[in-house]
Amino acid sequence: MNYNRYARVQTHKVSVVRVRSGQHVNMFALRLVTSATKFAKTLPSASCIKTIHTVNVLFKNKTDDLLSVDIRGESLQFPYVWLRENCQCEQCYHTSAKSRILDWNNFDLNVKPKNVSKDQNALQVTWNDGHASQYNLNWLKFRGFTTENQNKYTETIYKPKKITWNNEDFPKIFSKHDYNEILNSDEALYNWLYQLSVYGVALIQNTPDSETAIDAVVNKIGFTKRTHYGVKFVVRNVPNTSNVAYLSSNLQLHTDLPYYEYCPGVNLLHCLVQTASKGGENILSDCHYVAQYMKVHHPEQYKLLTDTEIEWRDVGVEDGNEFFKLHRDPVICLDRHGEVMRINFSIPQRGSQFPGPIDLVKPWYEAHANFLALNQKFGARFKTAAGDILCFNNIRLLHGRNAYEDSENNVRQLIGAYVDWDEIYSRLRCLKVKLKNEDGIC
Amino acid sequence: MNYNRYARVQTHKVSVVRVRSGQHVNMFALRLVTSATKFAKTLPSASCIKTIHTVNVLFKNKTDDLLSVDIRGESLQFPYVWLRENCQCEQCYHTSAKSRILDWNNFDLNVKPKNVSKDQNALQVTWNDGHASQYNLNWLKFRGFTTENQNKYTETIYKPKKITWNNEDFPKIFSKHDYNEILNSDEALYNWLYQLSVYGVALIQNTPDSETAIDAVVNKIGFTKRTHYGVKFVVRNVPNTSNVAYLSSNLQLHTDLPYYEYCPGVNLLHCLVQTASKGGENILSDCHYVAQYMKVHHPEQYKLLTDTEIEWRDVGVEDGNEFFKLHRDPVICLDRHGEVMRINFSIPQRGSQFPGPIDLVKPWYEAHANFLALNQKFGARFKTAAGDILCFNNIRLLHGRNAYEDSENNVRQLIGAYVDWDEIYSRLRCLKVKLKNEDGIC
Is A161 contained in some domain? Predict the structure, then answer.
């Protein structure tokens, strides 16, 4: 089996085109850049079976379409077309909508700079169409095209990097947050959401004993994700239920609502009443850890779980409204970079139709059994108390609950709400901008 | 460049293990099946640059893990493990939750049938663990593992097949539906949603002149998708806006909210007041058509638009709530089968940070310009009237609007709502089951 790997070779010819002298002016250079791309074919080792995403088209930059700018001692290159299109003046960029308003019907892809100058804080470019642009240097550097600058941007503002864990790590990574502090402090709110995004789990304590207490927490983020089970949901034993979560029996490890293409991102479970009986413990497992473990130790099963689409399914009636949800996705969904993007797992809500080839059925079941066993092995066990809101990433962790004895004097009741990652990352970024106050982000 | 293609060769040894005679009993056979897989390496033609998804693991079915069943003259095979896990009895399947409740901790992947029998409507299997299962034959056939049965299942109940169109086709495919009929007839509701899912566009007419009229239509599906712009939104000229759609100037072709990972699936735009001035026309373009066109005529640009992640972005304040949305995705997103899954396109809401290699910037801009030009070329132009609800697939079509003259006597006002495809496909399936009444679907 052959893979293509993408390698880039660049040579630079420096041509200083304009130098201004003055108190706040540094030297800068407009570089002529030639670049060539070549493909290196290599055979991966047997265990390396993940798909490597490649760009298969050979491009040569024209020799004159990049501007080199020295910013705080670093030489950075910016394509002309990118600079011109991202002009921040009021004609090109709408300040209150924070959006590009440049008319693409009159946009010249081959635009070139006529004059370039720089002072300590800004780069000024006059273009061959006569338009004048100015760029904040911190803003430019933050958008630099080097891998280092791009990685810094990603971790600073796109999404924090996830850290995986298993049952042994769990006591160290399981952070606890105070309900009132989250409502009253931006730092506490930021810290809670940051822990939740990095580890996929965080606990809120000291929540008032009220069915609406969870709303104030949700409002600090934005709003809930509504599903056919409602805007919020109550988890307690319901004999003639439309969902197995509403039974008191053992609730096997699962993700919620895998049959939603837009599967709820985060599950917030407010424990109002915890059963005094034995049982009712939570189990949580980080599937990013388990996926990595399988990739190393069971690569063929990992491949089956990442490649084989399964049909997730929920059919029923809730509050008089019928639903018939189907969604096809593997158990382990990878993104374009081969990183785990989403986990789907639910024995009750896996449909009976198998959309793949018959030959894969038995091996897939074996992989599925191993995935479940590993999640049980590496999962953490604990029991929430009344006043806790257990918050976890529903497209990363499996959660389950041991059976408990349900009686009139021994109930268990949770109020649940879902919030999507779109809203959580958005709130995290707003808080980061507010708390860290770094120049050049927006 | 090499591709792997997956080929399967099977040989069958038929062994009739049990034959019952009687009024409603047909012959059936338990087949011993051996299968081998082999990989054929072929070089694709130069224009074939799409990724071919392959299953890279070599599996051999055991010789005794498939059951052959003749159903209505067709010989179908079912893996034992699949049959046992999908037993429909009350111990294994919860009837009201319509969910599997079999305990996987005690599930034997190597389960085997001890006795098999069949009558005209059902297959009966007694397993080596003593458990007895019964399967409706229509239910089984609908879940058959042949490509033909799987395709039939997919089109019958998973999702209707999309049909692409361009500006010339538009008058033929642009279906019109009556507001009251949709509210009062399941057939009309089904027909509207079916057209919307196949063509990505459908018009509702004769809607009452009320800001809440759209709610009744949404309620027939389920509920709206809430975003940071609200549960519904009003589109009219707002001078100091947080979104360029609220301006009266030319609104370039775009998809709404590409910066949402969970991008709104369908856009419903109720035209309350249409401008009497020249301008304000809608433009709609089917990007599935344009993508296919680019794949054939501009394969390198197609590859750039499908492979290069772009950062979509919206930063602002709405109703006092700050938001900072970022989402990375190519313009043309493909699914695991190489089919277009989602389109992202918005010049104002494309962020300034480019997450890819600098060499791709200029070629990507050229591909982007061509994509826009082709959508303008193949897009359909028309003007909605007061009382229309324009409904379109927001992750498939681009939409835009010509500039109009906004004055006190010449306004234009729309009420908009988003609904996700999860809810639309769900409603379509419920209606299909109700209207077509086919046995074996659930």
Answer: no
- Within this chain, do residues B401 and B264 fall inside the same structural domain, yes or no? yes
Give the integer Cα–Cα distance in Å for A10 and A157: 29
Q: Would A158 be classed as within a structural domain?
A: no
Copy the structure tokens of residue A110. Answer: 């081959």
Per the CB < 8 Å rule, is A242 touching B97?
A: yes
A417 touches chain B (CB under 8 A): no
Of B92, B123, B158, the last residue of a domain is: B158
Minimal Cα–Cα distance from B86 to chain A, Å? 6
**Between chains, do B354 and A37 touch, taking CB under 8 Å as contact?**
no
Q: Do B347 and A102 touch (CB under 8 A)?
A: yes
Residue A244 confidence (pLDDT) above 60: yes
CATH code at position A53: 3.30.2020.30
Q: Can you list the positions of beta strands (E) in B160-261?
A: 176-178, 201-205, 232-235, 251-254
Per the structure, the complete domain to which residue B278 belongs is given by 170-432
Q: Which of A92, A121, A153 is the last residue of a domain?
A: A153
Q: Which residues of A touch B98 (CB under 8 A)?
A: 242, 314-316
Give the three-state DSSP class for B376. Answer: helix
Shared domain for B231 and B141, answered yes or no, is no
The model's pLDDT over B230-262, given as tens digits with 9 standing for 90+, comes to: 999 988 766 556 666 666 667 899 999 999 999
Tracing tokens 């105070």 back to the chain, one arrives at: A178
Specify burial of residue B387 (Cβ count, 10 A radius: 0-12, 13-18, 19+). Answer: middle
CATH number at residue B358: 3.60.130.10
Put simply, whether B85 touches A (Cβ < 8 Å) is yes
Residues 245-264 of A with CB under 8 A from B: 250, 252, 260-262
| A199 and A320 co-located in one domain | yes
Question: Do residues B13 and B138 share a domain?
Answer: yes
Q: What is the DSSP string of B88-116?
A: -STTTEETTTTEE---GGG--TT--EEEE
Q: Give residue-wise pLDDT tens across range B91-143.
A: 999 988 899 999 888 899 999 999 999 999 999 999 999 999 999 999 999 99
CB A357 to CB B314 under 8 A? no
Residues B243 and B359 in one domain: yes
* A103: phi then psi, degrees, rounded to nearest 5: -85, 110
* B325 located within any domain: yes
Under 8 Å CB pairs connecting chains A and B tally to 258
Is residue B163 in a domain?
no
Based on the fold, state whether residues A140 and A255 are members of the same structural domain: no
A103 touches chain B (CB under 8 A): yes
